Amino acid sequence: DAGVIQSPRHEVTEMGQEVTLRCKPISGHNSLFWYRQTMMRGLELLIYFNNNVPIDDSGMPEDRFSAKMPNASFSTLKIQPSEPRDSAVYFCASSLFGYGYTFGSGTRLTVV
Amino acid sequence: AQKITQTQPGMFVQEKEAVTLDCTYDTSDPSYGLFWYKQPSSGEMIFLIYQGSYDQQNATEGRYSLNFQKARKSANLVISASQLGDSAMYFCAMREGPGGYNKLIFGAGTRLAVHP
After folding, report:
1. Is residue A42 pLDDT above 90, yes or no?
2. Mean pLDDT over all residues of chain A?
3. Which residues from chain B sit within 8 angstroms of residue A103, using beta carbons?
4. What is the distance between the alpha carbons of residues A44 and A26, in angstroms, rounded to a whole number?
5. pLDDT (0 to 100) of residue A61
6. Element (H, E) at A65
7. Which residue of A30, A62, B64, B67 has the smallest Cβ count within 10 Å?
8. Residue A52's beta-bridge partner residues?
């Protein structure tokens, strides 16, 4: 089992550019979560999916953020346009019926 | 409202001693799950231990045990025989509702330093 795979590991972009983060969950897991971690706000849940359907996106900070899960093995988190305050570590996690949550290695995003 | 509270921003312990990291939670749901994760300086989130709200016994995993006091709504992590490699951030988290379609929310974390 390769675990939850996130790409890229690091991303540096200029303010105003579009950024796309990618996640491949563990095969067979039915839920996928996107978290953001900053020193100021800790670990925040942005959005989660069950069976590829978005269930709760109340944590998405604003319209610049969007997430999709076109199939059970792939999800994206997009920021357009990016701003310096979006700099953070973004984690993807997957779960099977909420009894085990496995995290990816994270994407460290820096917006300059 | 804060649902997971970790009141200790930082803790230190001598190597080989035990340490308790505090966690209190708030929920009105009778079915919930409590988790602890470790985040070393490398940044990955490592699952340590799980306690279900209906579990009769405290969970244990090797040197980790969860001191579950349901009436007090506390789920403290106990690390026995601390090792230098235990130095990390530790997060308490809660899933409300039965397993299935529920999100995991985190506390602010406790930074543990193990001294030789």
Report:
1. yes
2. 94
3. 37, 44-45
4. 21
5. 87
6. strand A65-71
7. A62
8. none
Retrieve residue A105's tokens. 């290695």
Token digits of residue A26: 């563990």
pLDDT score recorded for residue A62: 85
Q: Which residues pair with A36 in a beta bridge?
A: A44, A90
The Cα–Cα gap between B12 and B101 comes to: 37
Residue A64 has φ and ψ, to the nearest 5°, of -70, -20
Q: How far apart are CA B33 and CA A98, in angstroms?
A: 9
In chain A, pLDDT over 90 holds for what percent of residues? 90
CA nearest to B40 within chain A = A105
Count of other CB atoms within 10 angstroms of residue B85: 9
Q: Which residues of chain B have pLDDT under 70?
A: 1-2, 97-101
Q: Is A45–B105 a contact, with Cβ atoms under 8 angstroms apart?
A: yes
Residue with the two structure tokens 């809660």? B94
Q: Alpha-carbon distance A59 to B106, whole Å?
A: 13
